[in-house]
């Protein structure tokens, strides 16, 4: 059963790679990759898969390709 995970991506961050979950359940992903040609999105998907303990192929971008707020579908 697939579910949608909404995350905020912080590209070009010195803090990354890091996944932070706030008390309200929101997820922020810090990646070192710049927001150029989808590099930050790919890095965020990789980190999210690792954080959730699923294979990278189970995480796909549902919406937000050019936005900092992204929706990923997790199968």
Automatic annotation (TrEMBL):
Pfam families: DUF167. InterPro entries: DUF167, YggU-like_sf. Belongs to the UPF0235 family. This is DUF167 domain-containing protein.
């Amino acid at each position: 059963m697939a579910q949608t995970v909404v995350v905020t991506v912080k590209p070009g961050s010195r803090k990354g790679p890091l996944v932070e979950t706030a008390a309200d359940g929101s997820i922020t992903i810090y990646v070192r990759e710049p927001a150029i040609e989808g590099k930050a999105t790919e890095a965020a998907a990789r980190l999210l898969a690792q954080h959730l303990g699923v294979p990278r192929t189970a995480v796909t971008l549902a919406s937000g390709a050019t936005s900092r707020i992204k929706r990923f579908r997790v199968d």
